[in-house]
């Protein structure tokens, strides 16, 4: 390709500062260095973690930045040392890398990686990027930054997928669907015949509902303060629906009465420390397992020690426990084999130019997922 080895000028949505609209800019994307891959992003979606960085965390040290981390694209060029990926490959960038060499990657117990972006930088955005705009270096978000026509990612954070995969659909497997589905199947290890409760019915929560159903749960209680989401939850396998606003007593007590003492498994898919406590306390004593899935790092979470002393387990899950390079291609295949729902999560289609509209939809709970076309396939 004519662009190989050269700086590419392209369009990207730049977050210059916290809590302000993104600005479409022409940026320069440098060629990939050793072990790096330059990707033409075809489709990307807005995830709540993007909003967390822009609107909630608002640490000025994390700006200016190109947000976006749930995407799919086509490899434009590769740097020295890249062996498994070639130009023209369809890929999904990963916000949790898989180096395959560290103690975490070698263990079946976790999908953490010592070389992962957040672990190394302790923040969602960092200065090591191949982006510049108006003479300024732009930060990279979770090592991916997909609100751009091109991005550069380390090869250990790239999943090569089936060439038959439609990128404007499977982009959702880069975060939300895997995060929720895997939290149920891999982290909670939901058992056949069990009773589950899922708190929060955004894309991650709906994927958790789908995971509970796939694991054979008998009863799946969907919990959300927006009753408009209940019909959607039914599509993914929910059997019961509870709006905490309809009850004067705590939601944990409501669920306890519904289930003879509490659910076997609960999944918190909101990122709210109060809801995390409610999810734990909704579990049955003795063996109840509650999984924290929603992302936040702004507040401490708490509960009474007796909740755990009585036999409950409180766990966390990142990206559903999936090892990205190995497992994301399998999830894409499951979708192509019609064993996994993906299309049903997409409520809106837009272009990258409309990114601020997409952010507003998510901010106000008016969408499940908005997929933005970035470049033609």
How do the helices and strands line up, and which of them pair or pack?
Elements: E1 8-15, E2 23-29, E3 36-45, H1 48-57, E4 65-66, E5 70-78, E6 90-93, H2 117-121, E7 125-126, E8 131-133, E9 136-137, E10 139-141, E11 150-154, E12 158-160, H3 167-170, H4 176-188, E13 195-199, H5 203-214, E14 219-223, H6 230-236, E15 240-242, H7 251-258, E16 265-268, H8 273-281, E17 289-292, H9 305-309, E18 313-316, H10 324-336, E19 346-351, H11 355-363, E20 369-373
Parallel strand pairs: 4-10, 13-14, 13-16, 14-15, 16-17, 17-18, 19-20
Antiparallel strand pairs: 1-2, 1-4, 2-8, 3-5, 3-11, 3-20, 5-6, 6-12, 7-10, 8-9
Helix pairs in contact: 4-5
Largest sheet: 7 strands, mixed
Annotation field: number of helices: 11
- Strand fraction equals 15-25%
Helix percent band: 25-40%
